Amino acid sequence: MNREIIQPRTLRGFADTLPVIGHYQRKLLQVIEDTYLSFGFDPIQTPAVEYLEILKGKGGEESDKQMFEFKDRGGREVGLRYDLTVPLARFVAEHQGSLTFPLRAYNIGYVWRGDRPQRGRFREFLSCDADIVGHSDISGDAEILTIAQTILTRMDVGPFVVRVNNRHVLNGLLADLDLADRIIPVLRALDKIEKIGADGVTSELREVAVDQRAIDRLLLLIAARCETTDQTLAAVGAIVPAGGEAAAGLAAIRETLETVSAMAGTDECIRFDPSIVRGLDYYTGMVYEIQLTKVPEVGSAGGGGRYDNLASLYTKTRLPGVGGTIGISRIIAAVEGTIGHGSAAARERPLVVITNTQQDSLQPVARLAATVRRSELFDVDFYPAVSKHAAQMKYADERKAQFVLTLDDDGSVSAKDMLSGDRVSARPEDVVETLRTMAGGA
Amino acid sequence: MNREIIQPRTLRGFADTLPVIGHYQRKLLQVIEDTYLSFGFDPIQTPAVEYLEILKGKGGEESDKQMFEFKDRGGREVGLRYDLTVPLARFVAEHQGSLTFPLRAYNIGYVWRGDRPQRGRFREFLSCDADIVGHSDISGDAEILTIAQTILTRMDVGPFVVRVNNRHVLNGLLADLDLADRIIPVLRALDKIEKIGADGVTSELREVAVDQRAIDRLLLLIAARCETTDQTLAAVGAIVPAGGEAAAGLAAIRETLETVSAMAGTDECIRFDPSIVRGLDYYTGMVYEIQLTKVPEVGSAGGGGRYDNLASLYTKTRLPGVGGTIGISRIIAAVEGTIGHGSAAARERPLVVITNTQQDSLQPVARLAATVRRSELFDVDFYPAVSKHAAQMKYADERKAQFVLTLDDDGSVSAKDMLSGDRVSARPEDVVETLRTMAGGA
């Protein structure tokens, strides 16, 4: 057939994961899942495709414009989920009767956004959410923050900071400034401070008729971040009203961060930051954002907050909660250049390649592979077909094998350490012990 | 606001995963990934959404009719992937230059089909594929079969059989019967033997002008399965021509299964079955299907085979290979009723719930949670708010906690074993040791 070749390509904003990054992503996911589990969370999953009326329940949001929507084969209006929070709301409303509350659930899955692709921003990315649904206690806020701090520390992806705020601080100030009727546009303007600066924020605030005195106080507030949480609490305390909602917000931040410190055993990398606004639509109390301090340009590496009533669109039961997400795709984009270009580093077990030099039968090689694999100490690959020794060694090298085993004509096995170049000969029944010794001595 | 409630529901054929099944699925996925890794495979990922011309490259297939397709926001014709094999073909064609061949890659991801939903069949399901691309050696066939056998054994989901065939056996017979020009319709008819029986197959074969003598011989072939592979090889050998393609196919089956036996250390649960046809479009050599023998009604629990040229639509490089998939959603559907309805059984670490009875401060409870969690021996949940002891114990019970810890007023910790009812009092610094002893004695 003389057919045209179809150009192999992916859609813009949709990326393949090649082996090196595949191993790395797996490692990060293991940290995330293991941490969620250790905090007593249960894994749940929701579908990628949902009824559009579920996904767009709120209506008129920024997110609606970026949704991948279509009609399914039965003519139903459906969409690809934009995040995992709306599906969680639908999930808890639908399964209320079969779930234990407070619910501690995590959901790891892809979400899709018709966003403009740029570094660290994709149209398809993995969201790794954990939520506690069914109570308003401050302990939940502290747990979600401790989880974020624990995961980022265990991931070992460089310095980070978890920036924490509480909506009540800003709300209290806005009430004091008589701006309670313009909370959303004011927060939206303040949220852009890092992108458009104080001048930009000023002109946006003027558009919604905020006067200069109020603008000055708002800018003062969001610039009040100091080195330590205690200093910031004092600085912000001097800007917001001394009682009421703002003061309650400050007290909550103090108690939350003290609890995190007791749980995490440290208050490093986590602090009060009055410039954090985040998630205008959902959040009603604590909010936070994770930033990789050396690569701020990839944006938020995760975040979340507390919501008063998660599932109000789908049930009359009031379900408060708190949750957060880890932006694993952003984190990988941030560290991608530094990931070792070998699978060896990423594998938990060293890779052993068995060469294939037997002309007559596969079975001695197959048995050797089985023996080494059964030890559960090594991943074992064997070269598929009899071919030149040089080609097989090149393959082992490219795969970053740590050891190469060759079955010799006399039935003995020669083991080569690919790093040191050392060779040891062993009987087949002693191969595992030999490899274990070589690996231990490396 | 007096708003209508949006009915919380999922699309037909799209299912939520609740905690109990979530833990179970996670356990099965760990077996799958760990086995793939131990055979030296690397993890890769491809996007859920691809250009429609990629997904429908072949054109006119059964799969095309079941594809979820739509226009993206830029007006591009796109679709949700129907399987992971077409994306793999596009992937290897696109990244040829940066991959090591033979490629050993696994890809675990959701796929979407507008199929009629029924037990074990969903419109969205997780596909867990592993492929060896870049060589035609029989060792690859043996490895893929050994992996299937290893995974099903380790999953511990009841008795199963891996039914193996080789296309060359049937092709050889069809050539002998002068039916080489009707291979696809004949195979399609034979593939329905378990659904429509011998009479149904006969009438379908007559429609493509196969004469009765040929029909008899074909039905004889696909009914030739015996207790052991050796018996089946002998029985089939008496039906197909003694030389040529069919004989080569039989020799390949014998060698493949002998190699599997050497690798797996057993030939249990895996045998030659001349009735297996499977995957008309892809496969050109070995084919196999996994069946859970006690729940045949859920259909194939996995399968795969060898292909001569994986990516011919996307590259001129000839890339032979062999691969297979594990149908995890089908397997879960098959065993769902028998999964213990508690998260305890599914958790790797026992769950500890810490009750919350302190009126004044969260921090002693938070510190206790941190201490127990740091041991890495237990998953730790703590009850969020001070509330009645009975409510907290009910929660611990519903969560299937193995231990409940209560911080007493004198600063000591009381540990209760939820199974035995035993209680032990310990100092906070001795809690981990106390729990370890209680867990060991259970």
Describe it.
The structure is a homodimer of 442-residue chains. Chain A has 442 residues and is an alpha+beta fold. Helices cover 40% and strands 19% of the residues of chain A. Chain A has helices spanning 19-38, 52-55, 62-65, 85-95, 138-155, 167-176, 183-190, 193-207, 212-222, 229-237, 244-264, 328-335, 343-346, 363-374, 389-398, 431-441; strands at residues 42-43, 49-51, 69-71, 77-80, 103-112, 124-133, 160-166, 270-272, 286-292, 302-307, 321-326, 351-354, 379-382, 403-407, 413-417, 423-426. In chain A, strands 1-5-6-11-10-9-7-8 form an 8-stranded mixed beta sheet. Chain A has a 5-stranded mixed beta sheet with strand order 13-12-14-15-16, with helices on one face. In chain A, a hairpin with a 5-residue loop joins strand 14 and strand 15 (413-417). In chain A, helix 7 (183-190) runs antiparallel to helix 8 (193-207), helix 8 runs antiparallel to helix 9 (212-222) and helix 10 (229-237) packs antiparallel against helix 11 (244-264). The relative contact order of chain A is 0.11. Chains A and B meet through helix 1, strand 1, strand 2, strand 3 and helix 4 of A and helix 1, strand 1, strand 2, strand 3 and helix 4 of B.
